[in-house]
Amino acid sequence: MEKRSIESKNAVAIGPYSHAVEIDGFVYFSGQTPIDPETGKLVEEDITIQTRQCFSNLFNVLESAGLKKEHIIKVNVYLRHMKHFSEMNEVYKNQFNEPYPARTTIGVAELPLDALVEIEMIAKK
Fold first, then answer.
1. DSSP states of 57-95 as a string?
2. Tell me: the pLDDT tens digits for 70-100?
3. Dist. CA 106–CA 124, nearest whole Å
4. What distances in angstroms separate CA 48 from CA 4, 22, 33, 115, one per listed residue?
């Protein structure tokens, strides 16, 4: 069982972890917070903007893995406030085409850097 680390210069890791790891044809993406890779700072505190930035970061890692959106099979969304669910969902539905990936959305007490959202994915080559 060989695993390969995937990194993207257009995403930010705020700890000692890989942006993604590939093993046995599956690619597991670390959660991405809404950090602008150019500034290294959290984007403004608006759930729509933050959700878009999370996906931008994830899709940059996806591209570095040589994959496309169609390869994504599962998405996990972590929201600091479930009251933001519908706004996040509006952004989410424009990221994918049917059939949509499986998804779980979880309300959490806190996220790194006080982000409103963090998103992780699993893809299959």
1. HHHHHHHHTT--GGGEEEEEEEES-GGGHHHHHHHHHTT
2. 999 999 999 999 999 999 999 999 999 999 9
3. 23
4. 32, 29, 13, 12
CATH for 3-124 is 3.30.1330.40
Tally DSSP H helices, then E strands, for the chain: 2, 8
Give me 46's structure tokens: 């608006």
The whole model's pTM is what?
0.95
Give the closest residue to 6 by CA, choosing from 25, 28, 35: 28
Q: Where are the domains of the chain?
A: 3-124
Structure tokens that stand for 89 in this block? 């969902």
